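Field: COMPLEX_INPUT
Field: COMPONENT_COUNT = three
Field: RESIDUE_TOTAL = 978
Field: MODE = joint
Values follow.
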Amino acid sequence: METLTALAGGFATALTPTHLLFAFAGCFLGTAVGVLPGIGPALTVALLLPITFQVPATSAFILFAGVYYGAMYGGSTTSILLNTPGESATIITALEGFQMARRGRAGPALATAAIGSFVAGTIATIALTFFAPIVVELALRLGPAEYFSLMVIAFVAVSSVLGASVLRGLTTLFLGLLLGVVGVDLQTGQPRFTFGMIEFLDGIEVTIVAVGLFAVAETLHLATRRKHGEDEILPLSGSLWLSREDWARSWKPWLRGACIGFPFGAIPAGGSELPTFLSYFMEKKLSRQPQQFGQGAIEGVAGPEAANNAAAAGVLMPMLTLGLPTSVTAAIMLSAFQSYGIQPGPLLFVNQAELIWGLIASLYVGNLMLLVLNLPLIGLWVRILKIPQPQLYAGILVFATIGAYGVSNSVIDLLVMYAVGVVGMLMKRYDFPVAPAVIGMILGPLAEQAFRQALTISQGDWTTFVTRPISAVFLTIALALAGGPAVWRAVVMTRRASA
Amino acid sequence: MSTSRRSLLAAAALLPAALTLRPAVAQQRFESIFMFIPAGPGGGWDGTGRAIEQAARAAGLVGSFQFENVGGAGGMVGLPRFVNQRRNQPNALMVGGSVMVGAGITNKSPITIANVQPIARLTEEAGVIVVPATSDIRTWQDLEAKLKANPGGVPVGGGSAGGTDHILLGLILKALGRNPREASYVAFAGGGPANAAILGGQVSAGISGYSEFAEQIKAGRMRALATSGERRIEGTDIPTLKELGLDVTAANWRGVFAGPGITAAQRQALIDLMVAVHATPQWKETLRARVWADAFLTGDAFAEYLKRDITATESVLKDLGLA
Amino acid sequence: MRSRPRAGEVAVAGCLVALAVLSIWQTAVIPVSPIYARVGPTLFPWIASAGLLALSLVLLAQALRGGFAGVGAQLPVDWGSLAWVAAGLAANVAFIGTLGFVFAATAMFVCVARGFGSTRPGRDALIGAVVALTSYLGFEKLLGVNIGAGILEGII
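Field: COMPLEX_OUTPUT
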C-alpha cells in the first residue's frame, strides 16, 4: 500500500508537462544516439551528462531514464540491420536478427525487438517497484563461488546447443576464452598475452571482436563468393508488422527473457550479456524448429532483446536501493547524482523519495513512449536495406570503423577488428560457428575472476563450490542440464524395452 | 562487460555550447583548456577534471574546455597518448594521481608519470577499513588481532591488485610485523562489486577510499574501524591508524599535470590558473560535497612530493611482490 | 568418404595448432609472483591453451584424413572481389591516422563498393565522402566524440 501511494506520487511528478517533455527528449536522444555505432547506453549517458548542470535534479534523472532505456532500444537496430552490434548486450540479437533482415524480414525483427523490449521493460519496472529491496538482499547473498557456479551453467548451456559441429564450436569457444585472457590480470596485476604492448594492457574490447566477427567477416566472406551470386539480400517481403505466427512465436520468449534478465541485472557481477546468452540458448532448446536458429528464427531476437531490457531495469535496483553500480551506465548515473550533491546509498529512498519515485514512474512512461516512438520508425529503418549491395557493404564497413576507432582513436583496435574479421571469414568458410567465440570472451574472464576470488576467500579450499548451498544448487542444475537429456533418453529407452 | 576493463573507452566531451555561464571576461586567463582524463567517464579522475571545469568556468577563468577520456590500465593507456600528442601544448592539462604512480611501476611501462610536468596536487582521500555491520569484528583491535594471528584467514576486499587499497593492506601487515605477501587480498573490478561483497559478508573486511563506503557507513550497513589519513576525516569520528598506534598513513591523491616540452613561463601560467581555481568558492563547495580533503600543493613542491611518493610506492610494491 | 586432404582445411587446422602453441608460449611467460601461489594468473590460460591445442590437433587429424566432419567442398574464392575489399581495409588503416577519418573512410568506401561490383568509382567517392563527412561532423561537432581528425578535418 505504501509503495502504491509513493508510486502515485511519483506519477504525479512524472506526468507534469515539463517532465513528460523531458522524458520524451530523453527517449528521442537515447534512441538516436544509441543507434550510432560504438555508442552504447553508457557512453550515451556520459555524453549527455553535462545537461545535469542545467536543469533540476528530478528533470535530469527523468531525462536520463529516457536516454538509458532509449539507448537500449536503439542498440538493437544496428545489430539487426547492419550486423554491427554497438554494445555487448545486443551481440546475440545480431545472430538471428541479421539473418531475418537478409531474408526480407527486417520489419518483424525490429518489431519483435521493440515490443519485446517494451513488455520486458514494463515487467521489470513493475518488479523493480515492488520487490527491489528483497531482490537486492537476495542478490547480495551470492558471492564469487555462486557466480562461478552460474558461469558453469552458462557454459553447459552454450555447449549443449552447439549442434552438428561440436568440435568446431568448442574450438571457437576456446579461441574466445584465450582472447578474454588478454590484459592485466585483476587479481595479481600481471600482464597476460599482451606481447609487451601497452594497448593490450586493458584487454580487447568485446564489441570490437563482435563487430569484427560479424560485420567485417560477413563482408569479406560475401566478397569471396560474390561471383556465385547466392548471397543476395532478399528484398523486403511481406508485412513490416508481426504476423499472427510471429506473435505466437514471440510472446513466450518475451516473458521468459524478462524472467531471466531481471534477476541478472541485480547481481553485482551479472551484467546484461549473460542473460541474453541464456535466453538465446533456452529458446533454441525449447524451439520446435531448432534448425531455424542461425537462419533467422524470430524467437532468437524476441528472447534476448527482452532479457537485455529486463536486465537494464534490474541494474537500477542495486543502484537505487544501495547505491551500488553494477554496470558502467549505472556508475555514470551515480556520478550524475553526485554532481547534484546527492550521495547515492541505502538512504536514497528515504532522503530523496520524491526524486526516486518520480524516476521510477518515468520508467513506465518512458517505456511506453519508446514503443510509440519506435514502431513507426521501423518503416524508416528498413529502407536502409534497399541500398544497393556495393554501397551497403561499403557503408557497413565505414560504420564498423567508426565504432572501433571513433571513441578510442586507436589504430591497434582497428587492426584487431580487421584481423578478427579475417579469422571470422575463414570460420564462416569452413563452417565454424562464430558466436561461441564472443561468448567465451565474455564468460571466460567472469568465470576466472569469480573462481579465483572464491578460492582466495576460502583460503584455497576447493570444496567451497559444493559446500556453499546456493552454489551447490547451481552446480546441480548445471549437472542436470549436461546429463539430463542423456538420462531422460535412457529412461525412455528402458521403459520402451520393458513395455 | 561489467569488469573494469575497457567497458568504456570513451572520449566524452562536453556539448560546449550547452552551458554558457557568462562571467566577467576581464579575469579570463585561458581562452580554452584541453583537459585529458586517462580514465573513463564517471570515476574519480573524471570527477576531478569536471569539477575543475565547473569552478573555472563559473569564475570566468577559462573560456571553454575540451575533454578527452582515454581509460584503462590505471591510466597507463592514456598517459603515453597524452605525452605524445600534447607535447609542447601550453593549454593542455591531464588529471592523474597515486593510482598512476603504482600502475606505472607494476606495468613496468616505458612512459610513466615522471614524463609529464607536475602542476598541482589538488585533493587527497584517505582510505578506510570497514567490516560488514553483521560481522563479529567490533573494533580495530579485533581485526588487528586476527590479522596478526593469521593474515591469510582474513579475506579483505578492495580495488584491483597493486592499487591504493591493496598497498594500504600491505602497509598495515608490514606494521603489524607480518609479511604483506601473506595477505588474502580479493581484488574486485570497481566500487560496485567490492561494496556488494562486503555488504553480503563475502569477505571479512574491505578497504577503499572513504567516499566509496561513506553512504553505507552512514546507513549503518558497514562499520568503519579506522582510516589511513594523517587526521580524522572531517565530520566523522573514525580513528586514524596512527591514533590506534599503527604508524601507517596512506592516501589517494589526485592532481593535474602538463605535457612535456612547455616552457617555464607556460608552466607557471597553468600553475597560476590552478591557484585561482583553488581559490574559487565553487571549488571549496565541491571539496565539501565530495568529502575530498584539500591537499593543494603546486609546482616544485609538488614535484618534490611526487618523487618521494614514487620511491615509497616502489618499495611497498616490491614488498607486495608486484614490482 | 573423401580421401584426399583439402589444402585449405589443413592450413586452417595448422594455423589453429600454431595459435595454440603461441598461447602456450605466452602463458609460460606470464610473470608469477610468489604470493599468489594458490590459484595464480596462469591456471586459466593453461586450461584454455591446452584445450585449444587438443581440439586443433583433432581438427588437423580430420583435415589430413580428408576434411572436417560434415563440411562440404568450398566454393572457389573470388580473389578479385576479396582483394578490393582487403585493399579498402588496408587503405583505411594506413590513412586514418595521418590523412584523417574522412579521407580514409572515402577511400575504403570506393574500394569496397568496387569489390562488390560497383562500376562508378566517381559516384562512390562522392557518396563515401558525404557519408564520412556527415558522420565526422555529427560525432565531432554535435557529440564531441573524436573520430580521428586529419588534414581535411583541420580545415573544417
